[in-house]
Amino acid sequence: MAGRVNHLLRVLRNPDLRRLEVAFAMFAVAENATWIAVTVFAFTRGGVSEAGVVTVVQLAPAVIVAPFAAYAGDRYRKDLVLAVGYVIQAAAMLATAAAMWADSAAPLVYGAAAATATAVTFTRPAMGALLPAATATPADLTAANVLLGVLEHVGVFLGPALAGLLLQGGGSPERVFAVMGTATAVSALAVFRLRLAADIVAPVDVPDSDDVVHDALAGFRTLRDAPDVRLVVAMMAVTLVVSGANDVMFVAVADHLSDGTSTARSGLFGAAFGLGALIAALGSVALVGRTRLVAPFTLALTGSIVALALLGVSDQVAIVLALFVVCGAGRSVSKIAGATLIQRVAPTAVLSRVFGIVEGLGMAALAFGATAVAIAVGLFGIRTGAAVLGAAIGVAVCSRFGRLRRLDAATPGPSAALVALVRGQEMFSLLPAPALAQLLARLEEVIVEPGADVIRQGEEGDRYYLIEHGEFGVSVDGRPARTLGPGDGFGEIALVRDVPRTATVVATTGGVLHALRRDDFLGALTGHGGLGVATARSGSLLADDAHRVAGDDG
Predict the structure, then answer these.
(1) What is the pTM of this model?
(2) Which of 116, 403, 483, 518 sits most deeply, having the most CB atoms within 10 A of its CB?
(3) What is the arithmetic mean of pLDDT over 358-377?
């Protein structure tokens, strides 16, 4: 435990990492606060129908731009991509505030808001590419990503709460955009102050456009040919349909409880949703190692659907807050469990592309949920409309429950021993539940005979190894260096530095290893599966610690 805390403190003491984390924290708060603000603005103008339409208007361009944004960090300097992204977001937020203050035409206001939502798509990929350049060891990189995940959930909670405070007492949506635009400008300044070597943040080679198109289509072909993968992806989309509905319900319920006089409580309801998501995410480690995930997945999804259906029933603020907490918790658990199910059933070779499709489909599902709840509430009122939508989604989920249970039985999870083996590695000890589950799903068992060479000095490195059983001798330049046994790992040096193997490892006895391919290993550390090449070429992940001279097993 002390070691984990030390890694987190090292991240906070590092000036560049501290700037990156603080900048991202302000971004996460601003992203969620402005989403509430523009929804309130649209609801005030045209009711629930306009709020639903505006959600689609904001998400549509983001869906188109997101795939190109993901490549920006490979095409250009990573720090500049992140900083310029923050500058564009700040400018778009301030432009939205100015348009609102000037009572400009709705298309101008919503266009500026859509520009904000589109610019947001550059931040997460750029952060994922930049963090490896600012960290010294794999454990520090993991700690930085853990903090990033916590800040993400804090933003989901704190952003709506601050929006609610700014909307109270006669506040206006433009005030929210102005404050958050200023905060995001500070994020840009923090990134511009980074002191990272130019070669570390330099662009790397990316596939030709023809290769990119072919690779993207491979994910779609998997969905076409693999019904199990298609089923889980569809169920994950349902969770985001519910979330999209909640985005509109924050404002609709606030208006309903105030008899049409105020939407200020929408921020409070959004914060309750974020609080539920944060609590569930912190407790999601309990899902790691479970052999059956359909039960928590369906329970969480069902809970969020039922809570959505009941949102219009009660006039008690405390009850409504509790329902939004359930919605947030259900979203978090179902997202984590669903992602783990995908990792179990999708082919490893196309897993990243399948998740890319999930991201794009997720934005479409959010838009669909917002539109659906706007239509339902517009036709039937908030009480009946929420219940009708919840019932419709519930029927869709129940009709697939049998197939999900059969899928769960056919795809058992990792053993408790394997979970303990991975958790015992210092560099993996801080991994959040989703990343740990993904790593476990990609491990390959390797049986070795006595005397077998596992890795040879001078060869190219392509795997990291964990020892479950057996003893292994390490030699450097032909001289014995150390002996490895159960619980040890080796092979990381060549992977993160992109250099030949620095030692030879031979099985002294027969043994069982678990291998992790290079890109999967680097993806686990960075939280970004596509960063293998960029991370390895940065050469900054491992410090040259003197005490590791005999332990450079890789």
Answers:
(1) 0.71
(2) 116
(3) 87
pLDDT at 531: 36
Segments of 425-539 assigned E as strands? 444-448, 453-455, 463-469, 472-476, 479-484, 489-490, 504-507, 511-517
Determine the Cα–Cα distance for residues 530 and 203; give it in Å rounded to an integer: 14
Tell me: do 258 and 359 sit in the same domain: yes
Residue type, 439: L
Retrieve residue 256's tokens.
């309903």
> Distance between CA 234 and CA 237 in Å, rounded?
5
Residue 186: pLDDT over 90 = yes
Q: Which residues face 472 on adjacent strands?
A: 484, 507
Bridge partners, residue 473, by sequence: 483, 506
pLDDT digits (tens, 9 = 90+) for 74-128: 677 888 889 999 999 999 999 999 999 999 999 999 999 999 999 988 888 788 7
- Rounded distance, CA 306 to CA 323, Å? 9
Q: Residue 137 has what DSSP assignment?
A: S
Q: Do the Cβ atoms of 85 and 126 come closer than 8 Å?
A: yes
Tell me: do 279 and 425 sit in the same domain: no
Q: What is the per-residue pLDDT for 545?
A: 32
Question: Could you tell me if residue 464 is left (phi over 0), alpha (psi between -120 and 50 degrees) or otherwise beta?
Answer: beta
Q: Are residues 397 and 420 in the same domain?
A: no
Q: What are phi and psi of 284, to 5 degrees?
A: -70, -10
Q: Residue 2 falls within a domain, yes or no?
A: no
